[in-house]
Amino acid sequence: MLLALRRTLASVVLLASVVLLASLASAVLLVSAGLLASLARAGAQATMPEPPAVTDPDAEASDSHSPARRRASVEHRFGVLLTVAYDGRRFSGWARQTNARSVAGELDGAIAAIDPKASQTRGLSRTDAGVHAREQLVAFDTDKDIGLRGWVLAISQHLPDEIAVVRATRVPAGFDARRLTTRKVYRYTVLHSPVRDPFLEGRAWRVMERFNHSDLNAVAQSLVGKHDFAAFRGAADTRTDTVRQIFRIEVRKAHSDDRITLVEVEGDKFLYNMVRIIVGTLIDIGRERRPRDALVQALASHARTDLGMTAPPDGLCLERVIIDHGISDDASGFQKLDSWPPAH
Hints:
Blueprint: H1 2-47, H2 57-61, H3 67-72, E1 78-86, H4 103-112, E2 122-123, E3 132-142, H5 148-157, E4 163-171, E5 181-192, E6 205-207, H6 213-220, E7 225-228, E8 243-253, E9 260-267, H7 274-286, H8 294-301, E10 316-325, E11 339-340
Parallel strand pairs: 3-10, 5-6
Antiparallel strand pairs: 1-3, 1-4, 2-3, 4-11, 5-9, 5-10, 7-8, 8-9
């Protein structure tokens, strides 16, 4: 009987051990499954790609951190026309460039410091790198009702020394001088000297030879009138319309310095490097490197090879702009518009 009792107790202990081991195994399996599920969810989250950026054009246009889009969404009430002068030696030209300093970029930044919602500037002439201007016309639009004197003084505070706002004029919003009948006057300065002049460095082309101004002036008159100036442009100019009108061209000695020759060209529009090619050819004619009729030959042949060199940009300056009509409602002209300082 005692033996039977021992056998019964042993069976009970064994059964309890089996049950306990089964329970532990189930618990381990449950924990393992949960852990694997957690790891799977974490892995999925780690490898799941980020949601794509918003591509809705309307959503992007409302981004307040985008100055260009913010400006485009504003309906401006006022237009301002600036007369700007600049020394072009340290700029890559008028036009905006992402990797270089430009006159338009400097003006845009100065205006944005006063009105971040103002439009970008619209310049009348796209001067090249190193070319100067005494009277570049620059328009922009704004919603701020600031007096003209205030615009001149405020913008000037944010400009480098090489750029100056000479005058501000009230014009309608959206005004663009490029759409008007205008004349541009370019002046090129040539210094005849065997040595450098530090006061003309970067503002004149220095050559060794001296010329007869009357003879060169007579040669230059063949360009006056409306002609096809296809030969008088740089290779980068691919425009098909190359007809331009020259109203006046003058080669003369400067009154204040007999070492200086001034070449003034007045026309309606100009091709790329057109004035510099004219000046370079006149100098080559004076040096007897080109025939006296080189200008006439090029007008007939349309061949760049009939002309002389392209003069460097140093001596070229946009001297002034003449607006014939259409700038004011009564066609009274640019001089009668509200300006500061007042135009004379």
